[in-house]
Amino acid sequence: MLKEILREYEAYRLEQYDMLKQREAEVLAALPELAGLRQSLVSSLAQKARSLILNPQETHEEEEAQDRISEIKQKEKELLLANGYPENYLTLHYRCPDCRDTGYVGELIKEKCSCLIQQLVERSYRYSELSGLDKENFDTFDADVFPDLPLPGTNLTQKEYMKQLKNVLWKYQEEYPHNSKKNLLFTGKTGLGKTFLLNCLAKAILDKGGTVLKITSYNLFEHLFRSGFSDSEAEPLMIKESIFKVDALIIDDLGTETRRNNFTAEELFNILNERYLQRKHTFLSTNLSLADLREYYSDRVTSRLFDVQNTMIIRFQGRDIRLKRTR
Ligand SMILES: Nc1ncnc2c1ncn2[C@@H]1O[C@H](COP(=O)(O)OP(=O)(O)OP(=O)(O)O)[C@@H](O)[C@H]1O
Ligand SMILES: [Mg+2]
To answer: Does 119 map to a domain?
Structure first.
């Protein structure tokens, strides 16, 4: 999988390089002055390299060459603009400026670029639950799907409550990634818009360049369980890696996973704890009440989940909006 993606990155780079060569040929044919500029650029670069090798102590010559290089580049830009070309017409275009489409960042220690991690997340994850984000996001959020009925215990209607909640989460994504509380826990019965709002957050964070893995609790624990005895398979391992690496991990429908005694609680604790230590975001939704959660998982899990220093617990209440529509 990684190899496949890197091959694609390389193909893209080669394609961009070919296109640059074509643009160069085109401009050279139209603007013969460019050839002269290019010629002096090459000799200045050569001079800079020579002085770097021969006189590494003597920086004067090198600086001079560098000044000339900048000057030539500036002239080239002006020439392009004066002739109606965009000023970046003769530079390579990158999809990701951080890694220049190589997939790796860092000088001495090479690390996977966040664009590569997101590619791995999306592909290694067959059920890609990030697919519906074009339909469920902050732009398509529609408060009118919620009834105008009063919510017990508040002086708001369900619709007003959801509008306010949307605003709270909109602010949250504006502050992302500097939020003081890294976890969100959505609790509430079925059909109240929990998954929809998780999708809004997922899209917003992806748009900000963060990496996101959104997965149902059922699928998450199936993967983890199976990876326990099939570690020869690269795929589940990749998911296991992403669980700890992504900027935002979104676990939907906590409580619907197959219960495997201590396994589920232990794995969940590991995930929450490790991500807590790394100060990474984890968002969860569940139909379980807080009391149910306590009963389902270990104290270690619930003390992480209910830690108000790091978790914003959001209660969803009211009428199931799926029922209204099918009626
Ligand atoms: N703000 C919204 N704007 C438009 N449609 C919405 C909104 N919130 C929810 N919906 C739609 O209502 C339906 C139910 O919402 P959602 O799936 O988010 O509920 P849920 O709380 O996750 O339910 P469950 O607990 O069963 O998973 C979905 O079809 C969803 O697209
Ligand atoms: Mg849901």
So the answer is: no
